[in-house]
Amino acid sequence: MSESSLIIQSLREFLRREVESVSAKIDKEDFYPREIVKKLGELGFLIPLYSNLSHYDMVKTLEEIAKVSGSLALIADAQGELAGEMIRLYGNDLQRKSFLEPMSKGEIIASLALSEPSGGSDIGSMKTYAEKKGSWIVSGRKMWITQGIYADIFITVARTGNSRKDLSVFIIPRGKCIETSKIEVMGNRGTGTAEVIFHECEVPEDYVIGEVNNGWEMINSVLEVGRLAISGIAIGLAERALEEAFQWANSREAFGNKLYNFQGIRWYFADSIAKINSLKALAKEVSRKFDENSNDKGVYVSMLKLLSAEIAQEIVDTSLQILGGLGYAKGSSVERIYRDVRVMRIGEGSDEIQRHIISKYSEKYGIPILD
Ligand SMILES: Cc1cc2nc3c(=O)[nH]c(=O)nc-3n(C[C@H](O)[C@H](O)[C@H](O)COP(=O)(O)OP(=O)(O)OC[C@H]3O[C@@H](n4cnc5c(N)ncnc54)[C@H](O)[C@@H]3O)c2cc1C
Hints:
By secondary structure, the chain is α+β, with helices and mostly antiparallel strands.
């Protein structure tokens, strides 16, 4: 067994031992699994890239977590591949030591505060702004922020100039200037989705990440990593739903025969298995592009994210169909996955935004085709 397989195997064991029995509670009680997040950190799985794992190991980590709890996977993504990645890629030594290191251990909870009530897709229309008055003063309103209710720090994107792309990124610790309120969402419950308002928060220069007015570029590269992560989550959700349906089809009888023996049902599985494995192969290829920092990794991760989200939703829907009424019942894990998987087509760049990226790239450089 390779070192990477051993690492994933140890994660699987942890998830089976400590998370499987809590995943229904996370959803049902909207329960934020603080202790589990901490343990994931102690084991080095909360920010895999900071733990020196490869991009594909990061995808596999999220895939495994999503098989057990979509909510926990989204929490890990928000902490690791969104907030964490901003500091890992662009933070200075002090920011890495003071924030990223404790974030990786689950000692500090962090959110990426990017989307706003006026729109998540059109980042250039952002209204949150920061003015330099000795320190920076940040004011504005953010929406849909994962972990927003629980975050100790907010990696906040704000306007610092007049052009659409004049954006900068600030680390803002929770304090009196920050108001958070819960947003009820259909799936991925327990992730602390919130509206976050910054009322003239004073931020020292040391808490600016990267260069002032370079936020546009920084956000885009962080979101690319986020899209790779989301693809892993989508694949994991689809795999789990399919496994549940497979077990059911092999035990449930109708018309004197196992469900799995009906050709209509077998073909559902054949199609889904082929699609999941195609996604995994693409995820591996795209991850390699990230490891090698290829120039075209952005367009390929858009393809992967678009397909993973759409196909995962389709597979989960098919799995629910195979489970019949049971799949529609509260308490069934496929019912939960059906709600969890839906956001994969919206967050970190919707389907439409991925299509936009792919078509714009093709217009500029010609159709991208893998070697
Ligand atoms: C559960 C959850 C967790 C989230 N977590 C975070 C987080 O941690 N941090 C954060 O910053 N954000 C987060 N988000 C926000 C998420 O990134 C946005 O919802 C997403 O980017 C879409 O933005 P929007 O909802 O404002 O929709 P809009 O941008 O208003 O878009 C609405 C619809 O129009 C489509 N559309 C927009 N522009 C175009 C176009 N040019 N062409 C065609 N169609 C278009 C979109 O694809 C979408 O279907 C989260 C959202 C959810 C639901």
